[in-house]
Design a protein that fits this description.
Number of domains: 2
CATH superfamily of the largest domain: K homology (KH) domain
Strand content: 15-25%
Largest sheet: 3 strands, antiparallel
CATH architecture of the largest domain: 2-Layer Sandwich
Distance between the termini: 42 Å
Structural class: alpha+beta
Number of helices: 4
Number of strands: 5
Helix content: 25-40%
């Protein structure tokens, strides 16, 4: 498998967001007309097509993939990619790196609604913590998922015409 061509060696110094990849995923409500409980998620290119289900802890009869799992997978994969890129730059082997994301869905005490909490745990056997720690800090600055959890994400919500 090829290593991605993305690199911090080609830093962008523009004044506006420059998209490198855009995807579109549509979710429909399924049998219960509730995307989170019985929805169908499909990407515009067909690479992702799955049924969403509530976790058993939230009352599901038939558990399956849920939005928190998808977010955890995306966050862990993105952080892993950023850390791997930095490892290669520092002539370290990224192969043994494992990134585990824990995402919790719960009540927001500020407004009684809901919020997510996320934690990452990185395992990098054979690399001393004093070597790995600065690279984790750099990966935190590089990874867009880490940026999103730290500072939010520009987003719009609109009604289709």
């Amino acid at each position: 498998m090829n290593v991605p061509i993305l690199s911090t060696e080609h830093d962008y110094n523009g004044t506006a967001f420059k998209p490198l990849y855009t995807t579109r995923v549509a979710v429909t409500g399924g049998a219960s007309a509730h995307g989170r409980a019985s929805g169908q998620a499909r990407s515009d290119d067909g690479a992702l097509s799955l049924e969403l289900r509530m976790p058993e802890e939230l009352g599901a009869d038939h558990p399956g993939p849920n939005p928190e799992q998808l977010f955890a997978a995306g966050y862990a994969a993105c952080f892993h990619g950023a850390l791997s890129l930095l490892a290669r730059r520092h002539l370290l082997d990224p192969e043994p790196i494992t990134v585990e994301a824990t995402v919790a869905f719960g009540r927001d005490p500020a407004d009684g609604g809901y919020e997510l909490r996320a934690d990452l745990v990185v395992s990098w056997p054979g690399v001393a913590s004093e070597t790995a720690a600065p690279l984790l800090a750099q990966a935190t600055a590089l990874c867009p998922y880490a940026k999103m959890t730290r500072q939010g994400i520009p987003a719009t919500i609109s009604l289709a015409s």
